[in-house]
Structures are given as C-alpha cells and as structure tokens.
Amino acid sequence: MATDQARSESEGTDTFDEFESRVQRISNVGNAAGILRWDQEVVMPDEGTPARAQQLSTLSSISHELLTADETGQLLEELESADLSEERAAVVREIRRQYDRKTSVPQELVEEISETTANAHPKWKQAKEEDDFETFAPVLEKLVELKREYAEHVDPDADPYEVLFAEYEPYIDLETAERVLENLRDELVPLIEAIDESDADLTTDAFAGEFDDDDQEALARDVLDSLGYDWDRGRLDTAPHPFSSGTQFDARVTTRFEEDDLLGSITSTIHEFGHANYTLGLPDEGYGTPLGEARDLSVHESQSRLWENHVGRSRPFWEHFLPIARERFPELEDVTPEEAYEAANQVYDDNLIRVEADELTYHLHIVIRFEIERDLISGDLEVEDVPEAWNDKYEEYLGVRPETDAEGCLQDIHWSHGSFGYFPTYSLGSVLAAQLYAAAEDELGDLDDDVREADFDALNGWLRENIHQHGKQYETQELIRQATGEELTADHFLEYVEGKYGDLYALEGY
Amino acid sequence: MATDQARSESEGTDTFDEFESRVQRISNVGNAAGILRWDQEVVMPDEGTPARAQQLSTLSSISHELLTADETGQLLEELESADLSEERAAVVREIRRQYDRKTSVPQELVEEISETTANAHPKWKQAKEEDDFETFAPVLEKLVELKREYAEHVDPDADPYEVLFAEYEPYIDLETAERVLENLRDELVPLIEAIDESDADLTTDAFAGEFDDDDQEALARDVLDSLGYDWDRGRLDTAPHPFSSGTQFDARVTTRFEEDDLLGSITSTIHEFGHANYTLGLPDEGYGTPLGEARDLSVHESQSRLWENHVGRSRPFWEHFLPIARERFPELEDVTPEEAYEAANQVYDDNLIRVEADELTYHLHIVIRFEIERDLISGDLEVEDVPEAWNDKYEEYLGVRPETDAEGCLQDIHWSHGSFGYFPTYSLGSVLAAQLYAAAEDELGDLDDDVREADFDALNGWLRENIHQHGKQYETQELIRQATGEELTADHFLEYVEGKYGDLYALEGY
C-alpha cells in the first residue's frame, strides 16, 4: 500500500513535470505576444502593422493549439486522479478551466467571432464619429447572437450572460456581482443627488493651466519614485491609451500627457502603477504557470484603484506630493494640499463620459452598461432599443440625458470587441480596493502617516502577503475571504465614499 | 496528358499552400523572437533577463519543431517532384536546406553545443578581463570538438570547416571565399606597408573634441534623413553593440554615442542604415517566406559596407554632410570637407583591435582569424598554440605584435559562441560592396554628383532592382552574377582602395 502510494505520487510527479512544461510553453508564448503588443502600442513604426498582425496571429494559434491538444486533455485527466499538492492542484484547476472553455467552442465559431469583431471595430468607430447608431446596430446584433451561441457551447445549462461574465471573472458568482452592483446603484444615486444639491464650494482649479510634456514626464517619474516602483523591473513610456503589461520580471507602465490635464496624467500614472505593482508582487518562482500569474480582472483593478483612489486621491498623499510637483511646476506655488485634494476629488455629476468620470459617478456609468448588456444577451432588450434604454438610465441614475449617441451608447469600444460581461469588473475592482484597504488598516492601523511620508512598506507588504504572492492559487472569492475575512462586499466602498464626500461636500446625513 | 499535367500542378498548388503556411508560421515565430531580442537590447529593464531567456528558448524550440517535423519532410518531398514556378522552387530549396541541416544533427548534440556556448561566454569574458588564455582554452577546445562533430553529422564527406562556413554563407563556395581572402592578404599587406612608410600628412583631428549625446542623436537622425531612411517603417535607438533588425515592414536601426567619437557614431549609423535599407527593400508580398528574406551574411554586409564606405567615407558625402554637422556642432565651423574626408579615412596601421580598424587593415584582422579557425577545425593547429599563431600573424601581416592575449586572440566574442566560419563573411561583404558599387556606376554613370546632393534614388533603385527585391530567390553566387555580370571578386575592392589610399597617402606605384 505504501509502495503503491509512493508510486502514484512519483507517477503524478513525472506527469506533472510534463504538464508543467506544456503550461510554461503556453505561458511563454503568451508573454512573448504581450511584448509584441507593448511594442505595437509604444514603439512600433506606423507601417509595421501588417507584419505584426501576422506575428500575433501565429503566436495566438500556436498557443491555442498547445492548450487544446489531446495531450493536454490526457495530462489533465491523469493529474486529476493523482495525489497533488494544493499548489499543483490549483495549476491543474486553472488549465482545466481554460481547456474546457476552448475545446467546447467549435473553431469555426471562434473564427466567425474573430472576423465579426474585426469588422465591428471600424463600424463602431464610424458610427461614433458620425453619431449614427444605425451604422453599428447590425454588427452589434450579430455579435450578440454569436456570443449567445458561444455561451451555449460553453455551458448549455447556464445563463448565457453568466457564462460571458465568467470569461473575464471566472471565480466571482454573477449573483455576487449583481448584488454588489445593485447595492452601489441604490446607495450612490441618492449620494450623488445630495452632492448635486450641495452648496459646498470646492476648489476645482488647483491644476488649471498648461503644463509642458517633458516636465509632466519627469513628474510621472517622481510619482513612481514616491510609490516605490522598481525601475530594475519596469519602465515608463507613453501610449494613447495607457496600460500596464508584463511579468514579475518586467512589468511596464504607460501613461499619457495632455497639456491641460496635469492631474489626469498623475492619477493615470498611479493607476497603472497599481497594476504593475501587482504584477511585480507575483512570485518569481511561479513564472510560467498560473501560480505566477495575476488573479483576474477585478483583483487586478482592485490594485490599480487602491493606489489611484485610496492613496493617490487622499489628503496625506497631496501633503507629500504637492511639494514635489511644485519643484517641476513652480506655478503650483500657491496651491495648498487641501486645494489639490479637492481638485482631485471633484464630482462631475453632469458628465456623460465614463472615462472622464470621478470615482463616485463612475459606478453608475458601469451599472448602466451592465444592465443593458445583461438584457441584450438575455433577449429582454433589442439592439434597436439600446439608445433609448441608455439615455433613460442616464436620466434616471445620473440626472443627465445624452443628446447624441456618440456621447451615449456609442462612447465605449468594448461591445465592438464582443466584450459583454467585462464592464462589471471595473466596479468590482473599486469595491474590492476599498475592502482590501480597510482590511489592511484593520491590521496595520491607520495608514495616513505612512502615505504622508510616502512609506509604503507596510501597505505593500500587506498586499504582497495577502494578494500578490498567491498568484492564481486560490479562487477569487476564496482569496478575498482569506485576505479580508469577508465575502466581497460594497460596504467598505460605500463607507469610504460616504465619509469622504459627505465631508468634502458637507452633506447632511452622511 | 494535359489533364494529368493540370492535376499535378493543382495538387502541387494545394500542397504548396500548406507548405507555405508552415513556412510563414516558422517565419513569424522567428520575427517575434527578433522583436524580443531588439527589446532585450534596447528597452528591457535589467532584471527582465530570466523571463526573456525562457520566452526566447520557447520560441526557438517551437520553431525548431515546426521546421524538423515529419510533415515538413513529407511536404518537401511532394513539392520536389511537383511542377513549381521558379519562385516556389526557391522557397522549397531554402527550406530543404534548413530542414536537412537541422534534422541531420542529433538533438543531444545541439543541446550540448548550446550548453557549452552558454558556459563558454562567461569563461571568455573572464579570460579577456584577466588576460588569461588558459581560462578560455579548455572550453574553446571542447567547442572545436563539438563543432567538428556537428559538421560530421551534416556532411560526413565534406571538409568540416566548409560545412561550418556554409552555416553562415550557404551559397558561396569556400574555395571562392579562400581565393578572395588570399587575394586581399597578398595585395593589402604591401599596400599597408607602403602607407606605413608614407610621409603623407593627413588631417586626422577634424572631429577631435567632446560632443553632447543628445546633439549626436539629432545628427544621427540627420544622417538617416540624408540617406532617405523610411521613418514610417523604422526607428533609431541606442544599444551598447549597435545592430539592425526587423522586417520589410519595420526595420530598425540602433547606434551608440561616445562623447569623444562623433565620427564613429556617424559611420556606425550609416553602416546600420545599410543593413536596414536592405531589409526595407525586400518585397512586401514575400513577407513570411524566403522570398521576402535577406540573402545571407555577406550580401547583408555588402549593403552596410556599401553605404558606410563607398557613400559615407567619400569626398562628396562630406561636401554634403559637413554643413549639416556644423548646424549641430558649431565647433566644426573651421573643418573643411577634405579634412573630414581625411579623418574618416585614416589608416591605423598599428591598431590591434578589429572593431577599431579602418576599412583597409580590417581585412587583415579577418584573414588572421580565418586562417586560425580553419586550422583549428582541421586539426592543423592546437588550441594551446592559438596565441602564438595569432601574434605571429599580426606581426607578419600588420607589422604589430600584441603584448597581451586580451588585445590578441581573446578580443572577439565569436568563438565563445562557437561561431567558426563567421569571420570571412565580413570581408566578403566589403568585397561585394565594391563590386556592386562598381556595377552600379557602370550602369548609372559616376555617382559622385548624386552623393554630393544626397540624391540616392538612382543608387538605391539599382540596389532594389538588382539585390533587395530578390530576397532569397537566387543562390548568392547567381545573384552576384546577375547583378554584376561577374563572379565574386576582390578586384573592384582592391582597385577602389588602391586608388583611394594611393591618392590620400600619395603612394608611388598606386
């Protein structure tokens, strides 16, 4: 019996090694593609596109073939009946999930979706430019159909939207997500109304003016220095749509500079730092397997939002950072930390555009998209009725009605990519950020002094220990439970914003 | 019969399409690896190495597996008996050659060579730093043995050095290469002696001084503008060891700036432009197959040397470029084009270092390496005797004897990579550059006026038509024959340098 056990373990080990090599190979191909995409966004010359498209397509199909090969399926089966450590079992779980998804959908459908989205993107762009929803509607309808079909293949018994949501957030139940989003909607609508009616006189022009690009870049580097970015494993560049990408050995940040938006460049840099800092906290030894890869979109977004909002939009941060900003921009001489704090936390209650929203109204933009895409996929809403539904919801939740579809339902790129189920992860990320920050302060005590001194060792140590180092070892809801002792909840976020904005806008009852 | 013929062609076509997809896939993986290597040299943060090494190793093994797969062999066999166009037959010929090489060598030997070179590089570095040949000798000996074994697998009937040379230059006979190198040696040794004995008083300090890096970079961009570099398909960056890489859609140049070496930065930039310009001239429609890839090392080097030497070190170039350089560096105000020309063509007859050599003595550095590595591989020279053989040859050919091995046989990295047979391609490239430039002038007339006006349309048009557009369609010696009407010959190079340096150094009999 002991011998049999030893033998089964040893066989499991050999099989696992073979499996791990395959997984690492897939991961390396994916990381190579990541470098190619970074290159394309940041440094590639304009006319490099045709060759780059072919290179990326080749890497993507190699990766797909490696993942969906019969050998992968056989290894998974063998390992699922072997006696594995918790870590190894987690690797098997993650690859099993990807394998099942990829092998359940016929290749022709994958290709049809890929072609349709390639075609949808220019249509969406044109529709937005010309403010003509009719240009986009037919291809959106086609995408909705194809995505429903896709979901049917993955799991014929499940709610199709749930299947699509799980594409981005595999380990948070849709029910949990819905509960959080409804909670946000129900609490934020009255809070924003109260702010709208408030007479408070916030200083909003602290960063008005024109700011040189090169100086903004130097200041972005100052920001990253303050936050403790590891330049030996990262770099800062500019990109039209800022993003972070890479691995624990090389996690890069991009940002952008607009002459009249110094604050935007600072907060965007902090946001992308949060993403990169998560990546840098993944364990080196897990490189190439899910143990060295970030948990999914919501956890990633929790890291960017935690740094952007809980650190970067706090009073103590501006007490620390304003003197540094003044070195680069002497015109900020007369701005006080309190004024900077107020400018960084202004609520734009009549804004129609998601990407220009503040941290409060932002979630109503998300709730609106979530409700619409969920109803689109279920068939409760027809594509042709999207513009009116969109505008009605803006009026109901935010008290403003878009006058055009360009600044209404055509504003975001996501649906043209067929990305239904993606939007909720933005809000879940913010909610989780607040929950994590509260848990960190529970354990470490109030962090304001640390932020004021730009001493992030304790906070980052807590994040490394409770989130980063685990990679994908735990399912998301389990990871949250272990880190905070609670299920995912909007409570901490609501407490945070009610306290902060109640104070800023001198709201009664908050 | 007509039907059979049609059928055989159509089957050939289907098979060719399948074959071409496979070839394109291999090419795309290789080009992706090229981007990863560019990234590593130019922008990657220091600590990115471990992950990058794994990514590159994965891409390399995927590429190897695709090339050496049984399917590749079957497709090759089918296509070799099909009725193919000249272009398609060339694609088959090129892949056949790679396939045969790769499949003839056992994977264990490939891995042993790979491990040994990985180990050899630090040993070489240490040996060079400590000027201690004994540190490098054992691993060099091992590499010589392994490379002999490698050659034996590829072709047991051939001279092993010939097999290794063909790794870098598959379509130039070693006999031709030897003839050219001997010719160079026999003619250059007396020419350099004559220069050594000349009383000519060249101006060599035209570019003495200290030059700011940023201004040097601006000037490097001016150089590339003058030469007509296509910025929509390229970029300029810095790298410790300048190189060019990429494809016809995206061919990038790197250079380096040293405060006290403005001239070196200019000539290095022109050299790398020549490489990139060749890549940019490859046909777009051939991307992904040998028809869209550069012929081998000697032809590539002919392009860099043609621009560097025949254009960039010419009188008319400096008549054009000196005024531009003065805009960036007013301290060059009093330098005349003739003085710049003299400085750019100074012969360093007591220089021991290949990479610091002028365009004349350079080839004796190469001949010495060629003679030594050929004798090492044949067994006519033992590793322990390399330092003395090296020093003797320097004394014999160049009239200088290295006092240390660090500035002698340890100076170059190549042998630590196991690259025996690489060195000759440098000289073959220069020789071919002169042959091509002469053929271009034969057809287009004297090009001095064009160079003086920085009008390179005719010259580049000639290169595009006679070299670039053909990719790998023709074997190298055939390509040279078609472009110049002659076999590869050192005659034009010797005529060029004898005329140029005879004039510069007022040599009798030249």
UniProtKB/TrEMBL annotation, chains A, B:
Any one GO biological process: proteolysis
Pfam family, one: Peptidase_M32
The protein's enzyme class: hydrolase
Enzyme Commission number, as recorded: 3.4.17.19
Catalytic reaction equation(s): Release of a C-terminal amino acid with broad specificity, except for -Pro
Keywords: Carboxypeptidase, Hydrolase, Metal-binding, Metalloprotease, Protease, Zinc
Alphabetical list of Gene3D superfamilies matching this protein: 1.10.1370.30
Catalytic residues as annotated in Swiss-Prot or TrEMBL: E272 (proton donor/acceptor)
Cofactor notes: Binds 1 zinc ion per subunit.
Protein family (similarity comment): Belongs to the peptidase M32 family.
Protein name per the record: Metal-dependent carboxypeptidase
